[in-house]
Amino acid sequence: MSRWFRALTLTLALAALSLFAASCGSNSPAQVRFVHAIQDGAAMDIDINGAPVFTNISFLGVLPNQPGYTTVTSGNDTIEGFLAPGETTVGFNPTSVGWSAGAQYTVVATGLVANGNNAVILSLPDNNTAPSSGYIEFRVIHASPSGPPVVDVYIDMNPSSGIELPVTIKGLAYTQASSYIALPFNPNNDPTAPGFTVYVTASGTLTPVYIDEQVNPGSAGEIRTLVLTDVKDGTQMNSSLLELSDVD
Asked: Domains plus CATH for the chain?
């Protein structure tokens, strides 16, 4: 069955369902943003329930532009990738996801798709409740299939003198997301040393350091999601973080 015929069929089915729901009271939609972290995957169009939602998104691309989300139907949904622009060749196979009405989600496509493999789709609920006064929040998503299977993350306030114990996020496994970590924003009011340094190591070790990068939120009250990814067409973790702006 062609992609467009399936889309028409699903559209008619959804229309019928919406008429039924209108008589019973309908749920509010969900909101999602999509991250392309498949290092051996080409640019893709992303369909949800058979209809294009995100178009021509390349490796390490994020749609919609940050900060922001796209409104989608809540409930049991299907997400599928096609090679862009506008092709019918499958980029990754249909995957079922569940999105609650009124909730926000970060959807990350990771894994490897060569040799007939299917992507790993992570559908992660977001919590964009404002941090306590004077604080910011970080969350880390491990989406690097070629990196250490389990990592430790250290988030050190600048000026950083290197990795300092205790670990901020311990034992984060591939395909997992950490909880939100609240940290004080520049409590010393030092304009010469804003922000933080993020270090990532294999869990239980201090070396080697896979990531050593500055992250500089602009003000208290912000929330950042940091995604660990692979190098494009490589065999190792990317030494740079993919930073998403949840709340500015």
From this structure: 3-125 (2.60.40.1120), 135-247 (2.60.40)
